[in-house]
From TrEMBL:
InterPro entries reported in the protein's UniProt record: ADH-like_C, NAD(P)-bd_dom_sf, Trans-enoyl_RdTase-like
A GO term, aspect molecular function: oxidoreductase activity, acting on NAD(P)H
Domain Alcohol dehydrogenase-like C-terminal: 93-163
Superkingdom of origin organism: Eukaryota
Transmembrane segments annotated in the record for this chain: none
Protein name: Alcohol dehydrogenase-like C-terminal domain-containing protein
């Protein structure tokens, strides 16, 4: 439990008072009670305690990136013609960023991922998905978004993505 920076809202109590704006309620009956096995699992499904416990950090990361670092305003009408490039759409942060960009900010979303993830990312709201393995991926992205690409979020952050 996040203590909300208050002496009266700490985590070492039998009961806590939590601000509705910093709390996510899940239906525990829908959770799988078995521990996750090592291996690949469906992304973006919150049906385990592990998934519920980890999503808040990802959402905070996306929120801070969009609002504080990129300065994106939550004005869907003003953002209707603007694009965001999310490099690494199939990463945990990328999956959340696509949904937040589309649903909360009303942005058009261009993202990159291996071709096996394209349909899944489009189902989350990505408008255009390009394979980052393609030698001309940068040209494809520029052609799709042109001067309307106003924002970019790199969720991979390695030497190659930084130089792109």
């Amino acid at each position: 439990m996040h203590g909300n920076f208050s002496k009266t809202r700490g985590a070492f109590s039998d009961y806590v008072i939590a601000d509705v704006n910093t709390t996510v309620k899940y239906d525990k009956s829908a959770f799988n009670s078995e521990a996750l096995e090592v291996g690949d699992h469906n992304s973006s499904l919150i049906n385990t305690f592990e998934g519920a416990a980890s999503i808040n950090l990802g959402l905070v990361t996306v929120g801070l990136s969009f609002h504080h670092k990129l300065g994106i305003k939550a004005d869907k009408q003003a953002n209707a013609s603007k694009y965001i490039l999310i490099w690494g759409g199939a990463t945990a942060t990328g999956i959340l960023a696509i949904q937040v960009a589309k649903l909360a900010y009303g942005l058009n979303v261009i993202t990159t991922a291996s071709s096996k993830h394209h349909d899944f990312l489009k189902s989350l709201g990505a408008d255009k998905v390009f394979d980052y393995h393609d030698s001309d991926v940068i040209e494809q992205i520029k052609k799709a978004g042109g001067s309307n690409i106003r924002y970019a979020l790199d969720t991979v952050s390695n030497e190659q993505t930084f130089q792109s």
